Amino acid sequence: xxxxxxxxxxxxxxxxxxxxxxxxxxxxxxxxxxxxxxxxxxxxxxxxxxxxxxxxxxxxxxxxxxxxxxxxxxxxxxxxxxxxxxxxxxxxxxxxxxxxxxxxxxxxxxxxxxxxxxxxxxxxxxxxxxxxxxxxxxxxxxxxxxxxxxxxxxxxxxxxxxxxxxxxxxxxxxxxxxxxxxxxxxxxxxxxxxxxxxxxxxxxxxxxxxxxxxxxxxxxxxxxxxxxxxxxxxxxxxxxxxxxxxxxxxxxxxxxxxxxxxxxxxxxxxxxxxxxxxxxx
Length: 281
Description:
The protein is mainly alpha-helical. Helices cover 74% and strands 0% of the residues. The chain is globular. Residues 151-257 form the CAAX prenyl protease 2/Lysostaphin resistance protein A-like domain. It comes from Fagus sylvatica (Beechnut). One of its GO terms (molecular function) is metalloendopeptidase activity. Its EC number is 3.4.26.1.
């Protein structure tokens, strides 16, 4: 691919269209196809999973037509999209290690709680017996099964990260770079399109959850600010590694950890209540 082979207006228009299409298609079953409302949360989420998958496939196809790729072979296209099989462990270990620095306080506090819990068990005469290890393993397996059967977990850890990274990183960044934008400009510009995909939450919070207008703007504003910051970081990972797996694992890790905790109430120090909920989950 050659830099500047795609005009900047075409690149920006294509990215904006893909962002809007990613959101609009979520409402297509109800407003365009006139399908009846889903009967359960599971059917509602499955419907959205299908819409997000269609949006990702369409974006990949359109992007392949716009990009100035001489060879339309699958291996060439996958390479442009960052879908590669080489250097997989670097694309996983380095981004997760870098991302975990943002959650260092949370991880240390979790470790301290585990140590304190272990001390309490020891003081009660409960040693590290075979039954204790067996109970912990059973609890871990039950947690894995519970998460695997939870449709919201599939949304947060599989469908949303995968489809969003395909559209907003794998498709948009090559378009912006071919449009003549510098890498740092693409890193700053791509998150703006990424934040557009979350504007639909504005009406959802206001109409469905009966939030006040001020509270709605505060919640959505915080979400948009976080998505812009993370989008810049994910774009940096994609450009730096050329591997889609790098921003993908960072996305999944951030969804699992939630917002970073800035303060705590442990040992007389102020603590954030949201961390307690995260630790108990």
